Amino acid sequence: MGQYTKTYTVVLSLCALLLTAALITFPQDAVGASVKGLTMWWTIVFPSLLPFFILSEIMVAIGIVTFFSVLFEPFMRPLFKVPGSGGVVWSMSMASGFPAGARMTTQLRKQNAITQAEAERLVAFTNASNPLFIFGAVAVGFFHDAHLGYLLAAAHYGGNLFVGLAMRFHRRSEAATAPFRWPSLRNAFRTLHEHRLKHHKPIGALLGEAVRSSVQTLLLIGGFIILFSVLNQLLSSLSIAALFQDVVAIIFSILHLPAELSGSFVGGFFEITLGAQLASETTAPIVFQAVIVSFVLAFSGLSVHAQVASIIAETDIRYAPFFRARCLHGLFSAVLALLLFPYLYTAPSMQTSGEVGETSQAVTFFGELLNGMHTFGPVITLGGLALYCVCYASDKVFTSK
């Protein structure tokens, strides 16, 4: 054990020295990547996640999650071996995107609303990209192909469903069983009221805590986005990424996949946005582009892994089950994309004028929303940070008194 610890220390120190040397050698590349990551966080990530994070804090605090837990219990327990509150976490994670699922799961674990095994199952399959990113950024923004969004969304969320079904066997000996009972609104309201009485707080205090906690988490997420953006650029500058691409290209050739997609796979291994963008710039057949992008979206990239690991580190939830689940999600999503491609994707040249109009109208909302985020996102971010400062200052004033 001591030898392993010393080896780990040496490797970690060498990596830190190498990255420091790379920063000194390629300062312009590092600054450019840092600005790119900051821009993404500033315009998209912060304004899109802040409302969901605040809302999730309030829902957990006042007992709304407990209310829906009673209603969802008869369905979530037998299917996924998690409490009914997992249904709320799952729906919120799909609407807001990662790492919202990990954050809500951590909140429930801190309140002892779920066990360690249930938390590990829940965080494994509530890690999802939101529709805004899939339809707006990837399908319309990168590929300029609205139809592709339906295929990617079906593969992504379908893969998450299969991950949930697979993770029900995680620590199965600790899975609680209960006889099936139809959901009762009366019991749900009674549970909500009991939770509210037990955890009573003034609404002002709830809002202040929700804003402070949400912004702190988003600042942490922003740091990881910038860090991995710089790390990925430095690996490219050092030609280390090219070495990985050569290895992946050999594996792709064995699997009869286009070798030119190896760059998007390696890039997506670190950051999903880069992986999806690189895949859209290749000349590979669209079916293979969809397969690789589906895997990249499901695996989520090491940037998201680091965000989730830092969030769940506040509890006894382990990271290893989450990593295994991401690998499973990538496999499931890639296979689903391949199988569903003939049924859910229609090439633009094969669409009729009516189909194009109908598809564009269905996805226009996400495209317009993404454009709006680029325009008004920084304003929302500034407003959120200002609100955080006000809440933080108010808390300090009242605490000193």
TrEMBL record:
What are the protein's UniProt keywords?
A: Membrane, Transmembrane, Transmembrane helix
What are the residue boundaries of the Nucleoside transporter/FeoB GTPase Gate domain, all occurrences included?
A: 44-141, 219-313
Q: Does the keyword Mitochondrion apply?
A: no
Q: Where does the chain cross the membrane?
A: 48-72, 286-306, 327-345, 375-393
Task: Indicate what this protein is called per its UniProt record.
Answer: Sporulation integral membrane protein YlbJ
From which organism does this entry originate?
Aureibacillus halotolerans
- InterPro entries membership: Gate_dom (IPR011642), Spore_IM_YlbJ (IPR014226)
Q: Name one Pfam family in it.
A: Gate
| Top-level division of the source organism's lineage | Bacteria
The major lineage groups are: Bacteria, Bacillati, Bacillota, Bacilli, Bacillales
